[in-house]
Inverse folding.
């Protein structure tokens, strides 16, 4: 049985002060989530990770939004896995479409990060999804299959089991134009079948989230889809009221 997961991706929002305020107020939500077998978490900016981690209870996931695959060295502006582990962070979002677009991250670059995270005992949330042009050409599945193949290249079934996948059609991110639940289930079901072909039975244990304009008023629809195991949420995760409503829509 896969546990549902609500993960808020804050992107480049909230100062450390704002993150502390949110974390202090959000901490009690963990009990509600646990009572309904839902995992919850937030992904603040690097500078706010430590403060959020200190405030939130250990089972409340605090995730980075990216990481560098090298342990240390001449990589100006980057943050390493040992740096994250040192402040108690053991999750990282990898390959968000904004990083693919603005930082030219490829699926093979994501693969190096995912392998490094897994070696360190951390949980990668691997994001994939197609552009509007790819969607309109009807090439979503072949595009996503390629991202999946490269991003998870050379992983063993045991390693693949520890990855969380997030299907986020780019045309739905931050646009208010969400994919219908039928589209989400169709693509996520396809992703699960592809995982089964590659990794066997562990595919049934791998959590696959939907992301793209998930809001309190549509989250329940996605949660009714048999293959959708939760949501990666940007905009609607930024206020406590909306974050709590998202959680209530998942239980
Ligand atoms: C995201 O940042 O991953 C995302 C899905 O954003 P939004 O919910 O704002 O579309």
């Amino acid at each position: 049985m896969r546990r549902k997961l609500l993960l808020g991706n804050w992107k480049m929002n909230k100062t450390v002060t704002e993150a502390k305020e949110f974390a202090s107020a959000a901490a009690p939500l963990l009990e509600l989530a646990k009572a309904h077998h839902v995992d919850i978490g937030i992904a603040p900016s690097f500078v706010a990770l430590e403060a959020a981690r200190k405030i939130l209870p250990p089972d409340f996931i605090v995730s980075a939004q990216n990481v560098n695959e090298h342990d240390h060295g001449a990589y100006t502006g980057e943050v390493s896995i040992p740096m994250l582990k040192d402040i108690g962070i053991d999750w990282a979002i990898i390959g968000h479409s904004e990083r693919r677009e603005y930082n030219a991250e490829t699926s093979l670059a994501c693969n190096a990060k995912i392998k490094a995270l897994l070696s360190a005992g951390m949980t990668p949330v691997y994001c994939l999804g197609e552009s509007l042009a790819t969607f309109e050409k009807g090439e979503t599945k072949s595009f996503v299959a390629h991202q999946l193949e490269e991003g998870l290249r050379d992983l063993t079934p045991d390693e693949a089991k520890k990855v969380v996948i997030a299907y986020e059609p780019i045309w739905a991110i931050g646009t208010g134009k969400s994919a219908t639940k039928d589209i989400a289930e169709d693509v996520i079901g396809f992703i699960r079948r592809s995982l089964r072909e590659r990794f066997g039975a562990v595919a049934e244990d791998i959590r696959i989230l939907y992301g793209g304009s998930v809001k309190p008023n549509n989250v329940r629809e996605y949660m009714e889809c048999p293959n959708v195991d939760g949501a990666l949420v940007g905009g609607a995760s930024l206020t406590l009221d909306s974050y709590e409503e998202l959680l209530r829509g998942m239980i």
Summary: The mean pLDDT is 97. DSSP finds twelve helices and eight strands in the chain.
